[in-house]
From TrEMBL:
Coiled-coil intervals: none
InterPro entries cross-referenced by the UniProt entry: AraC-bd_2, AraC_XylS_family_regulators, Homeodomain-like_sf, HTH_AraC, Tscrpt_reg_AraC-type_HTH
Residue ranges occupied by any HTH araC/xylS-type domain in the UniProt entry: 202-302
Transmembrane intervals: none
Pfam family, one: AraC_binding_2
Sorted UniProt keywords: DNA-binding, Transcription, Transcription regulation
Protein name: Transcriptional regulator FeaR
Organism: Pseudomonas rustica
């Protein structure tokens, strides 16, 4: 006969193993003798999420787990039932049914489940969050209350999306973008637009978009165009946690991806890359795969 303690231990080990497979590297421990937990994965196109049930458990990520997992993403955590404690950095909150929080997967985080809890954990790619927030500071570890319109709308949207059987890739991407847009007021720490540096930063972003197709667009050219030193340009971007050249490259890649979703298969990839400022087709293909995980040709086929 297997003891009840051994059964609970086996159930706990299976639970954390599944979480590591579905969500990435986490550590966990039980908080009592009545642990229970399960996880169910849902994936449809760009939507990657999981339903996590837990009772009397702690789920956390330390620098060790972060080093072993994938970067480049956030977790939007929707509290569906029960309650859970959450902490990231100096921020702590108690989530009740209907609440939402955003967690940065590249930083330590900690969840505690003392009673029966059910959460929906949605993966948000970093590049999507950055693009939507226009590189304002991202607020993580804060409770978005269930009573707020953005929380209610986001809950309805993501749950309705999981009930759709024939969601196309473009529809799933649009759903993901809509959720980030709905949450933007709560997760964006906007700078005061009266601040001189912020005005210059926004002016610089507009200048990049205006000249994004120009091959000569680079930090030195950009600094001359907006009327400042290259060192000053680097400082303004560094304040946002950005590198100028990398931002320009990623902005081009994001626009290339948008073009691939809309263009026909007859356009040559080298021509498309060149039209967005990439003079080397090999460099374009390598950079695209690094940002989106697949080659541009495969990306276009998926969106055909």
């Amino acid at each position: 006969m297997i003891s009840s303690t051994a059964q609970r231990r086996d159930g706990f080990d299976q639970w954390i193993h599944q979480i590591n497979q579905i969500c990435g590297a986490f550590n966990a421990q039980t908080l009592g003798t009545d642990f229970s937990g399960r996880i169910r994965e849902y994936q449809s196109g760009a939507l990657k999420l999981s339903f996590v049930d837990a009772c009397q458990a702690r789920l956390y990520r330390t620098p060790t787990e972060i080093a072993a997992g994938e970067g480049g993403k956030y977790f939007a955590v929707f509290q569906l039932e029960g309650s859970a404690g959450m902490a990231q950095g100096d921020n702590k909150a108690l989530l009740s049914a209907g609440d939402i929080t955003l967690i940065d997967a590249s930083r330590p985080s900690d969840f505690t489940y003392h009673e029966n809890s059910r959460q929906l954990s949605l993966i948000l790619p970093t590049h999507l969050v950055e693009k939507t927030l226009r590189f304002n500071q991202v607020k993580c570890g804060h409770r978005i209350p269930a009573s707020s319109p953005m929380a209610m709308l986001s809950h309805h949207l993501i749950l309705d999306a999981t009930r759709q059987k024939n969601l196309s890739l473009s529809e799933s991407e649009a759903t993901l973008e809509a959720i980030v847009s709905l949450l933007r007021p709560a997760i964006s720490h906007s700078e005061d637009c009266s601040d001189l540096h912020e005005r210059i930063f926004q002016k610089t972003l507009a200048c990049i978009d205006e000249h994004i197709r120009c091959e000569e667009l680079c930090p030195e050219w950009l600094a001359r165009e907006v009327g400042m030193s290259v060192r000053g340009l680097y400082r303004i971007f560094a304040k946002k946690g950005l590198v100028v050249a990398r931002y320009i490259k990623n902005r081009r890649l994001d626009l290339c991806a948008e073009s691939l979703r809309q263009s026909g298969a007859e356009q040559k990839l080298s021509v498309l890359g060149y039209s967005w400022g990439f003079s080397d087709s090999s460099h374009f293909s390598t950079a695209f795969k690094s940002r989106f995980g697949i080659a541009p040709g495969e990306y276009r086929r998926q969106h055909a």
